[in-house]
Amino acid sequence: NAGVMQNPRHLVRRRGQEARLRCSPVKGHSHVYWYRQLPEEGLKFMVYLQKENIIDESGMPKERFSAEFPKEGPSILRIQQVVRGDSAAYFCASSLKKDGQDTQYFGPGTRLTVL
Amino acid sequence: GNSVTQMEGPVTLSEEAFLTINCTYTATGYPSLFWYVQYPGEGLQLLLKATKADDKGSNKGFEATYRKETTSFHLEKGSVQVSDSAVYFCALSDKAMGYQKVTFGTGTKLQVIP
């Protein structure tokens, strides 16, 4: 019974390159959430997606960042033209239901380092 | 907006000591409250939760009670073990949103020494 899978676990990019982070939710979960954790800080909500739809992207920077959750395949968080300030751990979570009574299951995270 | 404030760490305790990590929140409406634990190099695991006032969440010897009057959700454990060393995050989910948009505190690092 696989949990949330994220890959890669560690990603190193140079300034100006693109970063693509993948998240496979728990089987049967159709709600995906992305969070960013800066060093020594808590997690900050970025975006909430259902299959093929972005529901809430209020926590995601408007430029350079995008997210998708296609009908088939993993959810992708894409960061274009990365800068040093993008260095962080990016966590994906999934849930079966969308309401506040349900539990979010977190993946192990992708640690992005921008040189 | 919603916010969660928890005590700063690190907290260093001897094995079998009593643990309290304070957490207070600000939210509109009646949120669900959570404690998550993060072990080194890993993602977050849900430790316990409470969905309404006066509920007590408990798991693995940890417990926390949803106190609406003081807007608090303090984490306690009667006797900590070395294996409890981790970072603990208090969090809330605003039910009024209709979906889980979780707000986290900054985390409290716990170190338990033998």
Structure explained in plain terms:
- The complex is a heterodimer of chains A (115) and B (114).
- Helix content of chain A is 0%, strand content 49%.
- By secondary structure, chain A is an all-beta fold.
- The radius of gyration of chain A is 13 Å and the shape is globular.
- With 114 residues, chain B is mostly beta strands.
- Chain B is built from no helices and twelve strands.
- In chain B, strands 2, 5, 6, 10, 11 and 12 form a six-stranded mixed sheet that branches.
- Chains A and B meet through strand 4, strand 5, strand 9 and strand 10 of A and strand 6 and strand 11 of B.
- Give helix and strand order of chain B, one letter per element, not per position: EEEEEEEEEEEE
What does the radius of gyration of chain A come to?
13 Å
Helical content of chain A stands at: under 10%
Broad structural category of chain A: mainly beta
Order of helices and strands of chain A: EEEEEEEEEEE
- Biggest interchain interface, per-side counts: A-B, 29 and 27 residues
Q: What best-fitting shape of chain B do the alpha-carbon axes yield?
A: globular
Instruction: Provide a count of the helices of chain B.
Output: 0
Multimeric status of the protein: heterodimer
| Helicity range of chain B | under 10%
Termini separation of chain A comes to 36 Å
Shape designation of chain A? globular
The total count of helices of chain A amounts to 0
Number of DSSP E strands of chain B: 12
Average pLDDT, all residues of chain A: 91
List the helices and strands and how they pair.
The complex is a heterodimer of chains A (115) and B (114).
Chain A: E1 5-7, E2 10-13, E3 19-24, E4 31-37, E5 43-50, E6 53-56, E7 65-68, E8 75-79, E9 88-95, E10 105-106, E11 110-114
Parallel strand pairs in A: 2-11
Antiparallel strand pairs in A: 1-3, 3-8, 4-5, 4-9, 5-6, 7-8, 9-10, 9-11
Chain B: E1 3-6, E2 11-14, E3 19-21, E4 23-26, E5 32-38, E6 44-50, E7 56-59, E8 62-65, E9 75-77, E10 86-93, E11 102-104, E12 108-113
Parallel strand pairs in B: 2-12
Antiparallel strand pairs in B: 1-4, 3-9, 5-6, 5-10, 7-8, 8-9, 10-11, 10-12
